[in-house]
Amino acid sequence: MIATESLGKRYPKVTALDRLSVDITPGVTGLVGANGAGKSTLIKILLGLSPATEGRARVLGLDVATEGAVIRERVGYMPEHDCLPPDVSATEFVVHMARMSGLPPAAARERTADTLRHVGLYEERYRPMGGYSTGMKQRVKLAQALVHDPRLVLLDEPTNGLDPVGRDEMLALIRRVHTDFGISVLVTSHLLGELERTCDHVVVIDGGRLLRSSATSDFTQATGSLAVEVTDTDAHPDGTAALGAALTAAGLAVRAAGGLESGAGYAGAGGGHVLLVDVAGDETYDVVRDAVAGLGLGLVRMEQRRHRIAEVFQPAAGTDFDDANRGSAQKRGTTHAA
Ligand SMILES: Nc1ncnc2c1ncn2[C@@H]1O[C@H](COP(=O)(O)OP(=O)(O)OP(=O)(O)O)[C@@H](O)[C@H]1O
User: Fold this and answer.
1) Of 32-41, 201-210, 261-270, which gets the smallest average pLDDT?
2) pLDDT above 70 for 65
3) What is the C-alpha to C-alpha distance for residues 237 and 69, in angstroms, rounded to an integer?
4) Virtual torsion, Cα 328, 329, 333, 335, nearest 10 deg
5) Residues near ligand 1 with C-beta < 6 Å?
6) Is the four-CA dihedral 306, 311, 312, 315 of positive or negative sign?
7) Domains in the chain, please, with CATH?
8) What are the ABC transporter domain coordinates in residue numbering (predicted)?
């Protein structure tokens, strides 16, 4: 879908992309990096909107340096910033974008209605967009990227400005763009955690350089730990502590899960009361089961723990990206491991 070779972009005072070589295959790919890592710069080069200062890139087999116009016909683009005219309705705007992409009037209207329905805009689509919420505006931006039925869409920070529920809805929508229509997606984000749930593949960049490009499953391989969550009872008001003591007495290595454990990767987990138990062998499962039963606790879950991207990424990236990422996340009022 996308291949770059030693791609570079230098501005007078900053190197936005530094010899970036990466291959992106069909599916949903996340491009993650802190603010200023070079994500938007890469997207603009891939669309042929901004020339690279060195190296080469191809999108759908087309050279970005010479075939930008053809690329823009076949690729949808959702820009990062608010760019919607306030006095125009979503329908008028998306029909206009469809016409700009070369669709005849009737097909443009039909595709617009279908696409706006798909992104979840109904009656509101006839109202001026100036009165829309951020979530609705992001949906219109997504719709205009999809309306001409591209093979690939480039989505620049589509979850920006959304609350957690809005973010989850947008991520589910992005996933469906691929599963329902077979359109490949390159989606950028400065939040590692949200890409973990949405993308087949993740590309991490920092300071314009490639840090890692891997299948999401490689980032989130199973670890040698078991996450165990239990209920409290009258006899054991702190069931987790009682189980921890019992397992330690049985010779297992046990520790309390850190903050990440109660995050989105363990959705629905009971407030972070999770024990991590080192798996010594199959018998570890029996020891945990017997200890829980012996104490009369309810077993909420017992599952092989998987790495979260944020954890794997830290040692690979050193502290630079992480600090920058955390700083930018704070700046935006969001959390690092969202
Ligand atoms: N037109 C420009 N002139 C000079 N410097 C620029 C220009 N556009 C981007 N840069 C710089 O290039 C670097 C990469 O910017 P870019 O917008 O690609 O980052 P990003 O990863 O998309 O971050 P963000 O999410 O904040 O947009 C930054 O240091 C930025 O200040």
Assistant:
1) 261-270
2) yes
3) 66
4) -170
5) 11, 14, 16, 33, 35-41, 80, 157, 190
6) negative
7) 2-219 (3.40.50.300), 222-306 (3.30.70)
8) 2-232
